[in-house]
Structures are given as C-alpha cells and as structure tokens.
C-alpha cells in the first residue's frame, strides 16, 4: 500500500497534537482541557484510520476487478478492520 503525503501529514498533525497534550499534562493543565484535546486526537486518528482503510479497499477492489476476482472478501476484511479499531 502506498501512503500519500496527505495521509502522512495527517499523522504528523496527530503527532503534534499528542506532544501538545503531553506538554499540557506536564504543565498540570486542567483535566477538562486535557480530555478535550485527547478526544480531538482520537477523532483525528479515527478519521485517518478510515481514510487508510477506504483507500486500501478501493485499490484492492480495483485490482480484484482487473484480475476478474470477487472483491467481496476485501470488503469484508475492510469492515472487520474498522470494527476492530473501535
């Protein structure tokens, strides 16, 4: 699987968010603020995860179609990956 710059940049932003959260913790910031930022990071991770799975699914279905194979198994696997990530 090829990961384009858009996906890599999303992960870099998440990394920055996590560093910011750690700094907040080290500075003993309010729990509510830390939890809010953790929730935002989790949302960003969830969205990135969905993007990675959907991009991979599109590629797998395209390859299966070109080879005359059934793509149902790829769809099931993608759904399972998303379910397990929750």
Give an account of the 3D structure.
With 86 residues, the chain is an all-alpha fold. The chain contains three helices and no strands. It has helices at 5-26, 31-66, 72-84. Helix 1 packs antiparallel against helix 2. It starts with a helix and ends with a helix.
The count of helical stretches stands at 3
Uncertain spans, ≥5 residues at pLDDT below 50? none
Helix content: over 70%
Quote the beta fraction. under 5%
How many beta-strand runs? 0
Mean pLDDT: 88
Provide the structure class: mainly alpha
Amino- and carboxy-terminal Cα gap: 22 Å
Q: What is the CA-atom radius of gyration, in angstroms?
A: 17 Å
Strand count, sense and barrel status of the largest sheet are:
none
Instruction: Tell me the series of helices and strands, N- to C-terminal.
Output: HHH
Global morphology = elongated
Summary of the model, kept short:
Helix content is 83%, strand content 0%. The chain is mainly alpha-helical and 86 residues long.
Fill in the keyword field for this structure.
3 helices, 86 residues, mainly alpha
Describe the SSE topology.
Blueprint: H1 5-26, H2 31-66, H3 72-84
């Amino acid at each position: 699987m090829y990961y384009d710059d858009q996906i890599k940049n999303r992960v870099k932003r998440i990394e920055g968010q996590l560093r910011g959260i750690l700094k907040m913790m080290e500075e003993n910031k309010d729990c509510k603020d830390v939890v809010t930022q953790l929730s935002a990071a989790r949302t960003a991770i969830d969205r990135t995860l969905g993007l990675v799975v959907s991009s991979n699914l599109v590629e797998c279905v395209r390859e299966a179609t070109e080879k005359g194979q059934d793509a149902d198994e790829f769809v099931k696997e993608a759904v399972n990956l998303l379910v397990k990530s929750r």
